[in-house]
UniProtKB/TrEMBL annotation:
The keyword Transcription does not apply. Keywords: Membrane, Transmembrane, Transmembrane helix. CDD domains: AdoMet_MTases. Residues 250-272, 310-380 are annotated as: Disordered. Gene3D superfamilies: Vaccinia Virus protein VP39. InterPro entries: Methyltransf_16, SAM-dependent_MTases_sf. This is Uncharacterized protein. It comes from the Eukaryota. It comes from Chlamydomonas schloesseri. Residues 310-343 have a biased composition (Low complexity). The keyword GTP-binding does not apply.
Length: 380
């Protein structure tokens, strides 16, 4: 697993909260300014606080009092952050009250440990508690840093899975790593685990592969942008809440507020659920493929992405087809229409034939009747 510049695409058309070029980052969360060091000279992109981690941290902040991610529900739970990078998202979740294990590859760990010691080590929490009594510090969970390379499954067992929560922020940008990421998630969770992925859309093919893997194994909800922090959100950054699906269920739906104002109700969607929302300039040009499996009834997202409006919930149906799947569907539709038209012609022909026979029979009967009348008149 390697986050290198060569495999990383970034949309620079919008103003970012942080970039790879900075050496120090300050981010306010829960009324406290967290401070992170970065290494601009590093070829490893895990040494950067990326915007998706800011969006996720601020979303945790927004949900601390109410819903499925409120402190009352999260406190004391075990959480694992995959590809933690500089650790902002995982640290924010620890500030809610979870006991979090921050993980990444060995070359990222030195900076990750420095940032942990600065912000959420026991000494740092005690200091915050002394200066800010009655704040997050009074209910903060524990934090530890461990190595976990997704390409090395043997590193999972020492972490003692399963975890109650698994977090990932801006980890899905390279198609070659999506299967390793998916396998790792499967290893560290059970059916009760909640997986929270915050990702920036950088590649439609990567997004399609990610959704294809996870819609086969998980029920997925998308958090509406209206439920994110008012300032820290972007149309190309999405939050997905996932749980291992029960047999016969899969799909994507919008993370609504039927049962909880700020968090999800039941996670899951029926057959034919829409692909996840992904928007941006390229989205309109490349609509998503959402082929539905006949055996499972589960949608498999293709390389492209669907618009947010068309894919916000399972009730709106599957997204538009594209590519070979779309062509096949169009051909099938044309064949079906042709067969229907032929059937209508056959039906019309049969009805016309029946009408002609009826007229001929009536004429014959009329002629026969006239002949009989004439014969009777002659006898008289």
């Amino acid at each position: 697993m390697s986050k290198t510049k060569e495999s990383f695409k970034s949309d620079e058309s919008w103003e970012r909260w942080n970039t790879h070029q900075t050496t120090q980052v300050e981010q306010e969360v829960f009324g406290t300014v967290l401070r992170f060091v970065q290494d601009p000279s590093s070829e490893h992109l895990g040494t950067t606080v990326w915007d998706a981690s800011v969006v996720l941290a601020k979303w945790f902040e927004k949900n601390i009092r109410k819903g499925d991610f409120a402190r009352a529900k999260v406190r004391g739970k075990r959480a694992l952050e995959l590809g933690a990078g500089m650790g902002l998202a995982g640290m924010a979740f620890a500030m809610v009250g979870a006991n979090v294990v921050l993980t990444d590859t060995v070359d990222v760990l030195p900076l990750l440990r420095i940032n942990y010691e600065t912000n959420l080590s026991p000494a740092a929490v005690r200091l915050a508690r002394g200066h800010q009594h009655g704040t997050w510090a009074d209910g903060a969970g524990t934090v530890e840093v461990q190595e976990l390379d997704w390409t090395k499954p043997e590193q999972v067992a020492p972490l003692h899975p399963p975890f109650d929560y698994v977090l990932a922020a801006d980890c899905i940008y390279h198609e070659g790593l999506t299967e390793d990421f998916h396998r790792t998630v499967m290893q560290v969770t059970n059916e009760k685990s909640t997986v929270v992925v915050c990702n920036e859309l950088r590649s439609h093919s990567v997004q399609g592969r990610f959704m294809s893997l996870f819609t086969a194994t998980h029920s997925i909800k998308s958090v509406p942008h209206a439920k994110m922090d008012d300032k820290y959100q972007h149309q190309n950054i999405f939050i997905y809440i996932m749980k291992k699906k029960k047999k016969g269920k899969a799909g994507v739906e919008e993370h609504g507020d039927d049962e909880h104002e700020e968090a999800a109700g039941d996670v899951g969607a029926g057959p034919g659920a829409a692909a996840p929302p992904v928007v941006g300039a390229a989205a309109a040009a490349e609509p998503a493929s959402a082929a539905v499996s006949a055996a499972e009834g589960t949608p498999a997202a293709s390389e492209a992405a669907a618009s947010e409006a068309g894919c916000s919930g399972a009730s709106e149906g599957a997204g538009p087809r594209s590519g070979a799947a779309g062509a096949a569907a169009g051909q099938a539709g044309e064949l079906g229409a042709g067969e229907a038209a032929a059937g209508a012609d056959r039906k019309d022909g049969t009805q016309a034939g029946a009408g002609a026979e009826a007229e001929a029979e009536a004429e014959a009967k009329g002629a026969k009747g006239q002949a009989t009348d004439a014969e009777a008149a002659g006898r008289k």
